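Whiteboard transcription, Tuesday session. T.W. wrote the structure tokens on the left side:
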């Protein structure tokens, strides 16, 4: 899973050097941060709508699809700012370790 994020990070970084008309990501880098943030906002809204629909219908396919769009555009935002997805994973790991859940999870596995 982390491998996918790492590989995607590399592709998003490489797209900075590609002409705007040759790829979706390069077009976003060329349009700039405000356009990228607009897409993050749109995808967040679409994810919220899909989650509400999933709650009603029990069908979660659309919320998975929209969450992937949201994560993807968030990764483009981080890339545009020169931040790697690993920095976010490290922050999540730090919080997880702070909560002590690592030891608890290990105990549960041993049960
Ligand atoms: N994971 C994705 C990915 N997820 C979603 N999208 C694009 O994000 C857009 C979603 O926005 P919308 O649904 O609003 O579609 P849209 O109307 O075309 O977008 P706008 O005109 O409103 O900007 C679509 O164009 C999708 O194709 C993605 N585009 C690219 N990737 C990854 O990024 C890599 C590089 O992509 P390119 O730069 O296109 O080569 C690819 O190999 C993929 O791995």
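and on the right, the sequence the group agreed on:
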């Amino acid at each position: 899973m982390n491998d996918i994020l790492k590989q995607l990070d590399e592709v998003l970084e490489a797209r900075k050097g590609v002409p705007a008309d040759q790829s979706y990501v390069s077009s976003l880098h060329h349009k700039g941060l405000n356009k990228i943030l607009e897409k993050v906002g749109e995808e967040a809204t679409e994810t919220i709508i899909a989650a509400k629909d999933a709650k009603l219908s029990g069908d979660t396919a659309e919320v998975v699809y929209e969450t992937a769009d949201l994560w993807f555009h968030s990764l483009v935002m981080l890339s545009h700012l020169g931040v790697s997805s690993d920095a976010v994973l490290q922050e999540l790991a730090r919080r997880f370790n702070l909560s002590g859940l690592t030891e608890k999870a290990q105990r549960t596995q041993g049960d």
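Someone added at the bottom: Residues 8, 11, 15, 23-26, 39, 42, 69, 72 surround phosphoribosyl ATP (CB under 6 Å).
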